Amino acid sequence: MQELSSEYRISIRSLLLRPDEKKTLSLEIDAETAESYGLPCVKLPRLEGLLENRAGVLMLNYQMSCVPALECDRCLAPVEMPVEEEFSHVIVTETASEQNDAEYLLAPDAMLDLAEVAMTDLRLSMPTKILCSPDCRGLCPVCGQNRNLTDCGCDTGDITLSYQ
Ligand SMILES: [Zn+2]
Ligand SMILES: [Zn+2]
């Protein structure tokens, strides 16, 4: 089978076969890759971790630090929310019905795409609502101005604000 060449795709074949085999991971996801997953970053994702065969079970544990370039859901101002998080997965080469869990990573061809793992973990760790501050006043529904910066004075009495 021909393998795609990506610096983030690694073979885990020998790790799967040998109990107690380990591989340390230390890498940075590049800007283009982060952007291709829809999460451009102010500070690129840095991964430090370990792939380890623990008595026949392949575990991936790593620490990620990065600063995604987000924007406030209400006023669209840039929001910098540093991420420092640890992730852990069990890597399996075939799915069992009870394993459709984010903790399990499927690697059917014994290849692991670390960029995909990291960017998926990052996405899932993001809050569903991004706000520049908890009391962000958002954009005026009448004139569109940022109401954190200016008091436009529009009459918004009849407009129901629908902040999701
Ligand atoms: Zn805001
Ligand atoms: Zn206004």
What does it look like?
The structure is a single chain. The strands form two sheets. Strands 2, 3, 4, 5, 6 and 7 form a six-stranded mixed β-sheet that branches. Strands 1-8 form a two-stranded antiparallel ribbon. The termini are far apart. The protein folds into two domains: 9-125, no CATH class; 135-164, no CATH class. The protein has helices spanning 13-17, 31-36, 114-125; strands at 9-11, 22-28, 41-54, 57-71, 78-80, 83-92, 104-106, 111-113. 21% of the residues are buried. The chain is built from three helices and eight strands, in the order βαβαββββββα. The chain is mainly beta. 14% of the residues lie in helices and 35% in strands. Mean pLDDT is 88; it is low at 1-5. One zinc ion binds next to loops.
Write the layout of secondary structure elements.
Elements: E1 9-11, H1 13-17, E2 22-28, H2 31-36, E3 41-54, E4 57-71, E5 78-80, E6 83-92, E7 104-106, E8 111-113, H3 114-125
Parallel strand pairs: 6-7
Antiparallel strand pairs: 1-8, 2-3, 3-4, 4-5, 4-6
One zinc ion binds next to loops.
